[in-house]
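agent> Task received from the user: take the single chain below, predict its 3D structure, and emit structure tokens. No templates, no multimer pairing.
agent> Plan: (1) validate residues, (2) run structure prediction, (3) serialize to tokens, (4) report one or two observations.
agent> Step 1 OK, no nonstandard residues flagged.
tool_call: predict_structure(input=
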Amino acid sequence: MAHTDYHCNRGCPVEATLEIIGGKWKGAILYHLIQKTTRFNELRRLMPDITQRMLTKQLRELEARNLIERTAYPEVPPRVEYSISEYGRTLTPAIEALHSWGLTHLEKNNFNQ
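)
tool_result: status=success, residues=113
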């Protein structure tokens, strides 16, 4: 259930942000969509460990929060593209900071990339 009382202390804005973009996949989805508009199957290729069901769920949640936009084209076969919204683009510095920190973490701990 979503938490809505964020006036509790100075850490609450962080809690609010993580509630919206937290989890294993939302940050990665946003990172890819900040780079370029992407179709569903391309996102699946970029994140091979995510299931189709989970990707659909995460995309719907991000769309409901107005962080991404879904564009369906009236073609046969149907074509759907996802892009970062203007509001979602405001997260770019935070997503890039997470990306940078993640690279440092992986190098520091000798993870193979």
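agent> Step 4: summary for the user.
Residues 12-108 form a domain with the Arc Repressor Mutant, subunit A fold (CATH 1.10.10.10).
agent> Done.
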